[in-house]
Amino acid sequence: MGLLSILFGNKKNMIEDFKNRGAIIVDVRTPQEYQQGAIKGSKNIPLQMLNSKIDELRKLNKPVITCCASGMRSGSACSILKPHGIEVMNGGDWQRLSRNF
């Protein structure tokens, strides 16, 4: 098994685990980007507004999968949410992530 299949296999397993536990998908793209296509049932919380939604997300008491166009903003979103006790993973590119939902 190659390194990439190990890495991506683990990510796929994590996504499946989060999904089985009722994870919330938070798409951190702009509303304009989100309107052009998104994962059904995802919440659009633009990265620049994420800090104001932390309490709301924490109250849901569910794991969070972040996504965006490429994985960069969703990685930043993870860095914002983790210190607040939210179980979060970077789902990366929303189009690739959508194949799991």
Count of domains: 1
The CATH superfamily is identified as Rhodanese-like domain
Total beta strands:
4
Average pLDDT, rounded to a whole number, is 92
Topology order in helix (H) and strand (E) letters: HEHEHEHEH
Structural class: alpha/beta
How far the N terminus sits from the C terminus, by CA atoms, comes to 25 Å
If you had to describe this structure to a student in words, what would you say it looks like?
With 101 residues, the protein is of the alpha/beta class. It has one domain (21-99): Rhodanese-like domain (Oxidized Rhodanese, domain 1), CATH 3.40.250.10. Helices cover 45% and strands 17% of the residues. It is built from 5 helices and 4 strands, in the order αβαβαβαβα. A 4-stranded parallel β-sheet has the order 2-1-3-4, with helices on both faces. 25% of the residues are buried. The model has no long low-confidence stretch (mean pLDDT 92). It comes from Seonamhaeicola sediminis. InterPro entries: GlpE_sulfurtransferase (IPR050229), Rhodanese-like_dom (IPR001763), Rhodanese-like_dom_sf (IPR036873). It holds the Pfam family Rhodanese.
